[in-house]
Amino acid sequence: MVKSMINIRQHNLDKYIGETIQLKIPSTKYSTWRWIIRKRQDGRYIVRHPKIGVKIKDLNIHNISDYGEETLLPKGATVFGNPRKKTRKRKI
Question: What is the side-by-side order of every strand in the sheet holding 32-39?
Answer without folding.
Answer: 67-72, 45-50, 32-39, 20-24, 78-79
